[in-house]
Design brief:
By secondary structure, the protein is mainly alpha-helical. The protein has nine helices and three strands. It has a three-stranded antiparallel beta sheet with strand order 2-1-3. α1 runs antiparallel to α3. The structure holds manganese (II) ion. Manganese (II) ion (MN) binds next to α1. Manganese (II) ion binds next to α1.
């Protein structure tokens, strides 16, 4: 299904208390119902005057940011990134009763590119902790299936011409402050237990579709 303007707030595919106690119901309500909702609304407002942007998917809006009139560029950039990043973030989580593992193909790539799951998570954690201020850290794949770690500031998105983000860690304080206050490392250590590796493995297999 092609999704374009007007963008809608996608419901979570788990209940608000599903990620307790790692991510509280309260955090999830604020994060999804307030923060993400605002990005969706402000993206629609930013795009409304530009008919040529209204038939584009989020990926294509992000890829074509430079073609957007200067006056609208900042608003479109921040809000399209806000929607993209959060939809990814919420889609890769699952409650701990659904423990999953990477597919054999993804596991082999993790071993090849990082020397194993533990080392990959360690590297992702360093990136998440090292991200100054607000931003994101990711595991991404290129077209050839080579995995790497990257970070962005604010609501920027990795270079979608060359990479497909597989896993995104939100390191804005609103993602963890109610539950972990200033302890970003503790948030990361818990958050990583909620990853739905089935979803990540499928994103890896589907990377050609997502480019
Ligand atoms: Mn967030």
């Amino acid at each position: 299904m092609i999704e374009n303007y007007p963008f809608k707030l996608k419901p979570l595919n788990y209940s608000y208390d599903a990620l307790e106690p790692i991510i509280s119901e309260e955090t999830l309500h604020f994060h999804h119902d307030k923060h993400l909702k605002t990005y969706v609304e402000n993206l629609n407002k930013a795009i409304e005057p530009y008919i040529n942007l209204q038939n584009l998917t989020i990926n294509n809006i992000i890829k074509q940011l430079e073609k957007i009139p200067k006056t609208a560029q900042t608003a479109v950039r921040n809000n399209s990134g806000g929607v993209y990043n959060h939809e990814l973030y919420f889609s890769i989580l699952t409650d701990q009763r659904n423990v999953t593992k990477p597919s054999k193909t993804l596991q082999a790539s993790i071993e090849r590119d990082f020397g194993g799951m533990e080392k990959m998570i360690e590297k992702l954690k360093s990136a998440a902790i090292g991200c100054f201020g607000s931003g994101w850290s990711y595991i991404v794949t290129d077209k050839n299936g080579i995995l790497s770690i990257c970070t962005t500031a604010n609501q920027d998105v990795p270079d979608l011409y060359n990479f497909v983000p597989l896993l995104a860690v939100d390191v804005w304080e609103h993602a963890y402050y109610l539950d972990y206050q200033n302890r970003r490392a503790d948030y990361f250590d818990e958050f990583i237990k909620l990853i739905n590796w089935d979803v990540i493995s499928k994103r890896y297999d589907d990377r050609y579709i997502n480019f």
